[in-house]
Design brief:
Elements: H1 2-26, H2 31-57, H3 74-94, H4 96-110, H5 115-136
Length: about 150
């Protein structure tokens, strides 16, 4: 349905702006850390705005067909939005590395992946988060749960 496509595109755009804004204004990350998020975020914003414009105008991508009204519902949209937003309290309560890993583990398990696949993907995300962002880029991510930082 057109309204869900517009709402989803707008929500993703707001999320990208919020994440980049948090890095700039809340965490005050230096330019060397924010260079990659600026590049990727700028690209996502351009693509998202282009898709949002197309959705508002009713344009379809090549090979895309009108969705069957019975396949999308407000409930499905709400569940998707809840999954997107669930990462925030997970990171806040558990700290960034543990929050991301446990969020992904639960997400994969709920969406039909096996235990082994879910654990491997969650540990891979933990390794990427730790080694790329914390060790290599030296990003000051919240490592500990709220109130338990050493």
């Amino acid at each position: 349905m057109k309204i869900f496509e517009i709402a989803f595109s707008a929500t993703l755009l707001l999320f990208v702006v919020a994440i980049i804004g948090a890095g700039m204004f809340v965490y005050n990350y230096p330019l060397n850390v924010m260079r990659f998020p600026y590049f990727v975020g700028g690209f996502l914003l351009l693509m998202g705005l282009w898709r949002l414009k197309g959705a508002i105008q009713g344009e379809r991508l090549d090979g895309e067909r009108e969705a069957d009204p019975t396949t999308e519902s407000v409930g499905q949209f709400a569940r998707t939005a809840a999954w997107l937003l669930a990462i925030l309290p997970a990171v806040w309560i558990l700290g960034y590395p543990a929050g991301i890993s446990l969020y992904l583990l639960v997400y994969f398990l709920v969406h039909g992946q096996g235990w082994l696949t879910s654990i491997i993907l969650s540990l891979a995300a933990l390794a990427v988060t730790y080694f790329v962002f914390i060790v290599f880029l030296r990003v000051n991510l919240p490592l500990w749960p709220i109130g338990l930082a050493p």
